[in-house]
User: Fold this.
Amino acid sequence: MPQIRCANSPLKHISSCFRRLPGKGKRLSRADSENFLEADQEEVRIGDGILKFTPDQLKEFTGGFSDENYLDGTSTRSGFLNRVYRGKVIIDEESNWVRNVIVEVKEPSFHLEYDVWETQIRLFTDPVIGGHPNVAKLYGYCNDGMLGLVYDCDALQTMHNMVPDESFTWAMRMKVAFGLAHLLEFLESQTPPLRILNLEAHSILIDKHYNPLVFGFGVAFGGILRRPAPFHLLQHYICWLYSDFNLALGIVPPSIDVYGFGASLLTLITKRHDILWCTYHGRVPSHIPMTGLLKVSPNDVCLHDFTESIVQRSFLGEDEYLSQDGSDVTQLTMECVKVFDEIGLTAPRPEISDVVNRLKRLAVVCKLGLQRDNSLSC
Assistant:
């Protein structure tokens, strides 16, 4: 019988017995972190089939958290850090049976890290949310001296690292965009809607078939979480603040996930990350070089009225790229990342269902056969 190098978790469904954490945002000493994790590990109940690993096992899977296996990582303004690695779990040495995984580890230096880790586990182990094809599949976890999540996935890269890759074609990017939009539409269909507030390229894996797999669910609200927007997390974890957040009043617009999608789509079609900063004030700053884009603007351009194509010039030589698709995707992107002015006169962003329907009409999406239903003809 194949024996995996791991310790089996209790075969119990996830429960509501996670520790509630006092002093949110308070930095913990190493001793405090280890003591908290040691006490906390007895309270966590994970669903059937999810395995519990030790820090040494995570280290073994990733070759000692080697640079060779390192994929990506994020740090926030408050210093929080997560690191993502490729890993291999040896199921059976004799038959050389190995499972390819992705290992995410967090530094438990703040109480907030536990909130994020808990939220991810709750969503990954929910049979409805976790069963969606564009959600990363949880294989195991660690909360013994380290916070870790292990995903059953043989990913190429994170979306962040794929964005500037010239081999990442227009068709592949539109497949990723369609998958993300389809996931957001599914999450919004929950009662109440489940919304992701930190959808961004670092927390999206791209598998070998160019399907997006989202694992960054740590800053979410609604749905099965049954909680309002976690404002104690927003100021620490959002990598680019949406301009229509009002942290003081506790206001999060319902179209916030559409903005996150639009920002992701913007990076996909421009092959750039730095252009995201323009969305904070709704303008493309003149200091950002745009010579690689199809439309060059020497001055600030207001995104509210921007309708010309900003698709990267290098896509022009690809068979799957059509100029009409480029224009349509640009228009959709700009509508998604519209910002709200001080008196709220800006036209609303499109509904995520409208986003999906407009993507379905793209020639490249029709050619790839990505339509999920027959309601729209190509």
Notes: The longest strand covers residues 81-92. The chain has two domains: 7-153, 157-368.
